[in-house]
Amino acid sequence: MPRVSNLTTTNATEALAAVRAAEVIWFPGGEQSRQMAELNRLGLVAAIRERHATGAVIGGTSAGAAVMAKVMITGSPKNAGEVPPLAEGLGLWPEAIVDQHFVVRKREPRLQAAVKANPKLLGVGIDESTYVVVNGNGFEVSGKSVVIVFDGQIGSGIKRTEMKSGQRYSISGEAK
Fold first, then answer.
1. Annotated catalytic sites, by residue?
2. I want to staple 134 with a disulfide (CB 3.0 to 4.6 A). Which of 35, 101, 139, 168 is the partner?
């Protein structure tokens, strides 16, 4: 039977051993800035990246999805059209900036601004009750709502693609 461990934030040695032994690592919702701060404080970032590179399955919900990107949104901008506050994430999905609760919280403007500031990255807005499975050079959408993709590598402007459950997006920009 598989063993499930919750990381302790009081014992960095135990937390590191749990990450190194993990076959699946799950990041819960909450606040992505706080999650990254704790992972850095505990010295777990490199171990998580290593487990991902050697085949561990990595997943998360809400803020847990946002931390997987190389660049993560950490809040809303003070004024419309401004770039939202950004910080370094885990870099497990280095081609994307992930935003969560996307449609429900009307976050299109902040993700578009983040993509404009980082046009080589794909903006992936995941709504509630919806998820993506990243595999190879793309991802597939599943769930009840939609995923909105912003691609800033199409010349001038940003291409917006709305995707529903069962559709696959190639990182090269093709929705299928």
1. 62, 82, 101
2. 139
